[in-house]
Amino acid sequence: MKNQTNNRRDFLKRTGLAGISLVGASMIPSYASGENNSKSAMDFAAEQQRSQKFNMSGYGAPKLDVVRVGFIGLGSRGPGHVANMSLLEGVEIKALCDIVPAEAEKVRKQIEFAGFNPTLYSGDADAWKKLCDRTDIDLVYICTPWNLHTPMAVYAMEHGKHVAIEVPAANTLEECWQLVETSEKTKKHCMMMENCCYDFFELLTLNMARQGFFGEIVHGEGAYLHNLLDSNFAKGGYWNMWRLRENASRRGNLYPTHGLGPVCQVMDINRGDKMDFLVSVMSKDFQMNNKAKDMAASDGFYKPFVDNPYRGNITTTSISTSKGRTIMIQHDVTSPNVYSRIHKISGTKAAALKYPLPAKISIGDEWVTDEAMKALEEKYAPAIVKKVGELAKKVGGHGGMDFLEDWRLIDCLRNGLALDQDCYDAALWSAVAPLSEKSVAGRSTSVDVPDFTGGSWKTNKPVDILLEKGGNTKVVRSKPVK
Predict the structure, then answer these.
(1) Is 367 exposed, middle or buried (0-12, 13-18, 19+ CB in 10 A)?
(2) How confident is residue 481, by pLDDT bands cut at 50, 70 and 90?
(3) Is residue 39 scored above 50 in pLDDT?
(4) How do the residues of the chain divide into helix, strand and coil, expressed in percent and rounded to 5?
């Protein structure tokens, strides 16, 4: 136990998490604090106008008949992605890495049925680098705490690997630029695995928008309204309490991508339109510090979490695009809300709204009937849903969207196709968090949004949803029955 504790401390120290072992001044710093990175005080305007080294939008890397994968981070999200990949044709799971040896071993046993015997990397602080250094891995899948995402992704790309990163891809603007510049330099894909872009209703509205059902898109809304108050404070819930530490030190819309990603795809953001500026308004914290005080009263473990600068209960971010559209994104993970990502699309002819369920379509100022809704779902069901939708529901993972995103990633790599989400999407959607922190810190001032595409948004083509190419990756085995 002592050795494992020392290993964890060493891992934190070497990978940049050492400062979050305590709270207060040593917590993960916010963008507004000016302490989060060496460029925090610089003017990013010059970088917004930078020359693009290589346009990764629409780029299909050389196809891989077999995609050899290594996974880093097996505590929460990682095991599900490993399980999905173990079912797919043309995938070899070569390596598994987690700082806790037992987690890596547990996942290894879960995929024995598929004939995989991956090398395990664990305990040592540099274990993940050893995985990235291997020459027999094509894709590194990263499911670690947020502030490790970018360092690991950059290292992997620099060592010749495509990367898939759990959300968000970056915590700071500097990290967003690092992802873009490294992807362009290495010509390696950097995909943030925003699974909500693969939810069935979100895919339906994307296809409907493409076919003009909504008319001109005017406005979109998204959110992450999810009561995580108890789980954030639970010992053993998030490793080393990392998510609580994020919420105890950063003040803004910390987790925007679930609601934002699908709206951006409907609006062709980075592919015909771009974000121009945003404004964020945040409430005060009504619950998290009170929770910390209550917990600390009976357990000294929580005393360092008392009276930290917690983000407020709810943050509302409004975004304006170059084409005059608007986007509203909300974040609240402490209030006792019923779970919602909202997903609202408003056009000049029709609108869509998901949450509260069931999802609805309106034409004019009335919802369509249940019968008409079923007809619309059948007419506008996108190709990916027709092809693997039912299978995805059976495999599961957030209703099947986790499986869809993993299948689509592998299918694109095997066929040499452009990915649905590129480094510019990863950077932009993630950047809303630090930009919102800046706006909140400035008493809700407007903040310009960088153009990570270097101007290529004007000519980049929309994401392909027709599956006219590829779509041939098979599911070669089923999950074992427990």
Answers:
(1) middle
(2) low
(3) no
(4) 40, 15, 40
Query: Do residues 208 and 214 make contact, with C-beta atoms less than 8 angstroms apart?
Result: yes
In a domain, 173, yes or no: no
Q: What's the domain range around 377?
A: 197-381+423-458
Task: Write the CATH number for 279.
Answer: 3.30.360.10
Range 165-180 average pLDDT: 98
**Residue 339, in any domain of the structure:** yes
Q: From 99, 96, 152, select the one nearest 122 (Cα to Cα).
A: 99
Q: What would the two tokens of residue 395 be?
A: 């495999």
Cα-flanking dihedrals φ and ψ of residue 143, to 5°? -130, 50
424 contact partners, CB below 8 Å, separation of at least 6: 56, 57, 180, 270, 452, 453, 457
For the record, the structure tokens of 279 come out as 């404004």
Structure tokens belonging to residue 464: 């392909």
HSE-CB at 232 with a 13 A cutoff on CA atoms is 21
Closest CA to 170 of 436, 366, 434: 434
Following CA atoms 56, 59, 64, 68 in sequence, which dihedral angle do they give, to the nearest 10 degrees? 20
**Residue 139: which of 117, 165, 118, 119 has the closest Cα?**
165
pLDDT over threshold 80, residue 482: no
**Radius of gyration over alpha carbons of the chain, in Å?**
22
Strand-pairing partners, residue 281, are: 316
- From 364, 379, 366, select the one nearest 214 (Cα to Cα): 364
Give the integer Cα–Cα distance in Å for 479 and 224: 30
| pLDDT top residue among 26 and 106 | 106
Place of tokens 């999810």: 226
Is residue 325 included in any domain, yes or no? yes
Buried b (16+ CB within 10 A) or exposed e, 303-323: ebbbebbbbbbbbbbbbbbbe
What is the residue whose two structure tokens read 């987790």?
A: 255
d(CA 329, CA 234): 27
Q: What is the pLDDT of residue 248?
A: 98
Separation CA 255–CA 405 (nearest Å): 19
Q: What's the number of domains the chain is made of?
A: 1
Strand stretches in 84-182, DSSP E: 91-98, 119-122, 139-142, 162-165
At residue 163, the pLDDT reads 99
For residue 244, is it within any domain?
yes
Q: Do residues 471 and 414 touch, judged by C-beta distance below 8 A?
A: no
Q: Which residues pair with 98 in a beta bridge?
A: 122
At 312, give phi and psi (nearest 5°).
Answer: -70, 165
Is 350:270 a contact under the CB 8 Å cutoff? Answer: no
pTM (two decimals)? 0.91
Q: Can you tell me the distance from the alpha carbon of 111 to that of 480, in angstroms, rounded to the nearest whole number?
A: 9
Q: What's the pLDDT at 117?
A: 96
> Which residue bears the tokens 């649905």?
420
Give residue for tokens 């917690």: 310
